[in-house]
């Protein structure tokens, strides 16, 4: 049996967890690449030792050389520093920009036909930078943010209402950071709109907890940021692309007039398939939610402009 080839750049917490999930879910052969010598090789070997126990077909290998990543169908970029307590995602900006600038040209030159999914934070900025560095069409390079934010919102809703997680369909869009836009009017619990299920102050508390869901994990871990849910969210996007499912999932995509927003990356529902972003079907937002989305976009635009990345 042959599998698609996925490269994961960065064999740290998010990258290695995503690689393991991709292998055990039989999604793809995975090449882990990292600047740290021995780290990707050691983690890949450890994963391969579990093959007979877990009985999975795909192979995971580790390398420090992009030549080994050649011809990948899809590349996930997780290289970069994670947050420590007290840091916002924006505090990572300059260090991670340097890493993205060095990684992306190597990724594209080894795998010019790949779909690229960015994970490095601050996500909306790093994905825009990656687009510029890559020269790829915008449909083929996008980021993982909205799936994770929506998953956290779903968890908090299910917990608050004491309902099964699969009865909740939550949606969080906008910036992957403090300007995130959880959308209670577009989130459903057993077929009923969340905003009609709970009093407004309780909904607002869930929204607030979602926005700071990542920071809550960082405060516990102290030495790094969340990785299980981020890795799972990456895998769901990889499965949509490689399986050419046409699933509509909240993704950090390039906006070109949608929601009145242009020339930046932000999470909104997008249809994913083998060619990457196949469509961006617009939600019907009321005025208040549209204003929230546009205010969120304005924070991203400001960061891009202060870095001189646009125009
Ligand atoms: N090329 C390849 N790998 C690199 C490079 C580079 N230029 N620079 C750093 N790395 C690697 C590190 O060696 C490390 O193994 O990236 C890995 C990052 O792993 P962690 O420090 O464990 O960070 P992680 O929790 O995985 O988060 C990675 O994803 O969610 C975001 O905010 C998070 O930006 C961070 C990224």
Task: Explain how this protein is built.
- By secondary structure, this protein is of the alpha/beta class.
- The chain has two domains: 5-144, 3-Layer(aba) Sandwich (Rossmann fold); 146-306, Alpha-Beta Complex (L-2-Hydroxyisocaproate Dehydrogenase, Chain A, domain 2).
- 41% of the residues lie in helices and 20% in strands.
- It is built from ten helices and 14 strands.
- It has helices spanning 13-24, 39-49, 51-54, 93-110, 123-134, 146-161, 200-211, 213-221, 228-242, 287-306, and strands spanning 5-9, 29-33, 60-63, 74-77, 115-118, 141-143, 168-169, 172-174, 180-182, 188-189, 192-193, 247-256, 262-273, 276-279.
- Strands 3-2-1-4-5-6 form a six-stranded parallel β-sheet, with helices on both faces.
- Strand 10 and strand 11 (192-193) form a beta hairpin.
- The protein is globular and about 55 Å long.
List the helices and strands and how they pair.
Layout: E1 5-9, H1 13-24, E2 29-33, H2 39-49, H3 51-54, E3 60-63, E4 74-77, H4 93-110, E5 115-118, H5 123-134, E6 141-143, H6 146-161, E7 168-169, E8 172-174, E9 180-182, E10 188-189, E11 192-193, H7 200-211, H8 213-221, H9 228-242, E12 247-256, E13 262-273, E14 276-279, H10 287-306
Parallel strand pairs: 1-2, 1-4, 2-3, 4-5, 5-6
Antiparallel strand pairs: 7-10, 8-9, 10-11, 12-13, 13-14
Helix pairs in contact: 1-9, 4-5, 6-7, 6-9
The chain binds adenosine-5-diphosphoribose.
């Amino acid at each position: 049996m042959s599998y698609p080839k996925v490269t994961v750049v960065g064999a740290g917490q998010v990258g290695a967890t995503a690689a393991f999930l991709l292998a055990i879910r039989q999604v793809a052969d995975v090449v882990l690449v990292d600047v740290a010598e021995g780290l990707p090789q050691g983690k890949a070997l450890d994963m391969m030792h579990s093959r007979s126990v877990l009985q999975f077909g795909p192979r995971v290998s580790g390398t420090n050389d992009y030549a080994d990543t050649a011809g990948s169908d899809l590349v996930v970029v997780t290289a970069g520093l994670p947050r420590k307590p007290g840091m916002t995602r924006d505090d990572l900006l300059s260090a991670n920009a340097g890493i993205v600038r060095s990684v992306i040209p190597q990724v594209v030159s080894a795998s010019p036909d790949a779909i690229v999914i960015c994970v490095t934070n601050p996500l909306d900025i790093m994905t825009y930078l990656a687009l510029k560095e890559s020269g790829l069409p915008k449909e083929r390079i996008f980021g993982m943010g909205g799936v994770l934010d929506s998953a956290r919102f779903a968890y908090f809703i299910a917990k608050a209402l004491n309902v099964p997680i699969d009865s909740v369909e939550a949606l969080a869009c906008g910036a992957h950071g403090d300007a995130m836009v959880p959308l209670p009017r577009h989130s459903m619990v057993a077929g009923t709109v969340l905003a009609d299920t709970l009093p407004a102050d309780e909904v607002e508390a869930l929204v607030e907890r979602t926005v700071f869901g990542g920071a809550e994990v960082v405060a516990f871990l102290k030495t790094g940021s969340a990785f299980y849910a981020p890795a799972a969210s990456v895998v769901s996007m990889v499965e949509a692309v490689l399986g050419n499912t046409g699933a509509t999932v909240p993704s950090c995509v390039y906006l070109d007039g949608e929601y009145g927003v242009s020339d930046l990356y932000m999470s909104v529902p997008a249809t994913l398939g083998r060619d990457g972003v196949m469509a961006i079907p617009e939600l019907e937002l009321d005025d208040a939610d549209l204003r929230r989305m546009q205010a969120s976009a304005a924070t991203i635009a400001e960061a891009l402009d202060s870095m001189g990345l646009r125009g």
